């Protein structure tokens, strides 16, 4: 298993590099299984992905979540995205370390002016391209990888505007060798990341938090169903434990409650990837779920 992070300016040939590396790996002696995780898999326009910081943050969360699920399947995973923020590359490196796999960064080092030209050419052909304002913002915020950073190492640099790229390109072959070389006690040029106590504890904590959240939200659903079953018009469901009541203005069936619960848990899991952590106790989980339900029902948190 291995994780390859492709990074570079917008329109620097990252997707071409990802496909080329994938084909080279599949044709190598080891016949590797490869999975490319990219932005297109979410069926969103690239300008929508980077229209504002919340949208960009959500995209990174989705990519990271997909990577986290995929690294345990035995394939080489290639992340084809801008991956322009060093803090985000560090998060991906942490995933690789927690999984105990190989990791490397493939950097498409292309001059900004050439990237600008390629973006215009794509726009002229009616292909996916960036709006000028979004393009310039992404170029300005790009954080170039550095070999001295552990999350940017080993670093393979491609100069597509100068050299082009083929499956036989020296850098591609070097990356394939690194990702497929058999490792034994004498191997020194290939590094397989080792899980630390911190990363293992973090994964356990996240799993425990999801369990607590799942249990807490189910208890809230049970309370709503039970109080509605008592009969009569109910406009408020109380939960006790200093929790706010749930304001409801109509009967709410179990199918709708189940849908709202699943949506809430999913949203909490996605937002925790790059935002606040999941609640670690039942009351915190219930409070957040009650707030969510009150927003959905149009009530207020009394």
Automatic annotation (TrEMBL):
Keyword match tRNA processing: yes
PANTHER family found in the cross-reference section: PTHR12435
Highest taxon of the lineage: Eukaryota
Alphabetically ordered keywords of this record: ATP-binding, Nucleotide-binding, tRNA processing
Subunit structure: Interacts with the elongator complex. Binds to calmodulin in a calcium-dependent manner.
Keyword hit for NAD: no
Biological process (GO), any one: regulation of transcription by RNA polymerase II
GO molecular function annotation: ATP binding
Name of the protein in question: Protein KTI12 homolog
Family to which the UniProt record says this protein belongs: Belongs to the KTI12 family.
GO CC entries: elongator holoenzyme complex
InterPro entries: KTI12/PSTK, P-loop_NTPase
């Amino acid at each position: 298993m291995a994780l390859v992070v492709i990074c570079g300016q917008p329109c620097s040939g990252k997707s071409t590099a990802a496909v080329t590396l994938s084909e080279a790996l599949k044709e190598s002696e080891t016949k590797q299984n490869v999975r490319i995780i990219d932005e297109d898999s979410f069926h969103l326009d690239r300008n929508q992905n980077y229209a504002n910081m919340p949208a960009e943050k959500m995209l990174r969360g989705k990519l990271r979540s997909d990577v986290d699920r995929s690294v345990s399947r035995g394939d080489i995973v290639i992340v084809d995205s801008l991956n322009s923020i060093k803090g985000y590359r560090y998060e991906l490196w942490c995933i690789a370390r927690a999984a105990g796999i190989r990791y490397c960064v493939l950097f498409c080092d292309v001059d900004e002016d050439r990237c600008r030209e390629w973006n215009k050419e794509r726009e002229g052909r009616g292909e996916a391209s960036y709006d000028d304002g979004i393009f310039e913002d992404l170029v300005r915020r790009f954080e170039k990888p550095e070999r001295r950073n552990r999350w940017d190492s080993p670093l393979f640099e491609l100069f597509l505007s100068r050299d082009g790229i083929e499956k036989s390109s020296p850098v591609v072959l070097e990356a394939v060798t690194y990702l497929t070389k058999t490792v034994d006690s004498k191997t020194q040029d290939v590094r397989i990341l080792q899980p630390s106590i911190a990363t293992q504890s973090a994964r356990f904590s996240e799993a425990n938090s999801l369990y607590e959240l799942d249990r807490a939200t189910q208890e809230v659903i049970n309370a709503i169903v039970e109080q509605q079953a008592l009969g009569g018009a109910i406009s408020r469901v109380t939960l006790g434990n200093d929790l706010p009541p749930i304001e409801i203005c109509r009967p709410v069936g179990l199918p709708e409650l189940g849908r709202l619960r699943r949506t809430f848990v999913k949203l909490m899991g996605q937002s925790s990837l790059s935002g606040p952590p999941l609640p670690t106790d039942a009351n915190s989980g219930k409070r957040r779920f009650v707030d969510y339900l009150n927003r959905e029902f149009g009530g207020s948190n009394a």
